[in-house]
Amino acid sequence: MELGSKTKSEEIVRSHEFATIEYHDEKTDLQLCEQSAHYLSDTDAESCAIGVEETEKLLKANAERGDKQALFLLGQLYYEEGRYVEAETVFNGIKDEDPRALYQLAVMCYDGLGTTADHVKAVEYMRRVAWWHSSDVGSIRYTALYNIGRAYMEGYGVQASDSEAERHFLLAADGGNPHACVKAQTCLGMFYSRPDTLDLKKAFYWHTEACGNGSLESQGVLGIMYLYGIGVQKDPRAALQCLREAAERGNVYAQGHLVAYYYHWKFYSKAATLAERISKYEDIGAIARRTDCLPEYISKGIATALFYHGRCLQLGRGVEQNDVSAKECFIKAAQLNPEVCKDLQMDVIYGRI
Known about the structure:
It is a single chain. Among the domains are: 112 residues, Alpha Horseshoe (Serine Threonine Protein Phosphatase 5, Tetratricopeptide repeat), CATH 1.25.40; 104 residues, Alpha Horseshoe (Serine Threonine Protein Phosphatase 5, Tetratricopeptide repeat), CATH 1.25.40. Helix 7 packs antiparallel against helix 8. Helix content is 69%, strand content 0%. By secondary structure, the protein is an all-alpha fold. Keywords: Cytoplasm, Repeat, TPR repeat. InterPro entries: LRP2-binding, Sel1-like, TPR-like_helical_dom_sf, TPR_rpt.
């Protein structure tokens, strides 16, 4: 049983919009924090508990003795504390010998943190990180390549170019390497779902690779592709598995489509219960940060759940009929995402919901 028309489902996958370019990657943040914690535990096991001030003193002392790792971590400490001018001074001093410092300078340069925003220079710095002269650059090279691809997608600091964006995303994805940039792998899945660069088989391939490497967003998209047979043979069982697992991991877009799945297979109590829980979500920004999913698609997931919850209340399916509460759900859904509501209202008109 289909959850609406195939044209509609294809549009869901194709209409992905790339978020504003960000050179500051959460995965990199985590790596840097782990490095800092590891260094401090080796140097002084109690330093993590004695505050930023004591940590700063410790790092300064070790940096003055020639410890280059301590010097970088000092700059990172300043960065995390919002002391951007001091961070820039430290990073500038070591940018030619430490690619992590150059990467952080690119972040600061793009966002205008402690310096005047300069997208051209930010991309230039990212290029230097991507093509660093020695192998000690590590996985940050992949993140830099990904960000250059994003720059070409959006036209920030460079002339917009789909072909250059694709080239850099492919380099960053490194054939599906789990140690490369998984975000780039998901991004390729979205890239090949755009009308201008449409190749649904490639989209399915890259979402599969990204999902296998832990991408929550790609796992949700795969569920929808399996559900409607987009870029792959239709497989309701695989669709349900992907949607369930993604939903359990916090993918709100998958949760919304799981509500729709339950509803159309007449599991009305399950649909109503899950929809009611999703309808209480409020802080989309916090959800996006926690799950690393796009805010736009989180809003679509919540709006979908609200609409189906309203329909359950309106028709008394899985819950006691309540026209007043149903109307409230429809209004909230329309306010949150008019596009989703328009499509679902058409499904109501044509008897699909």
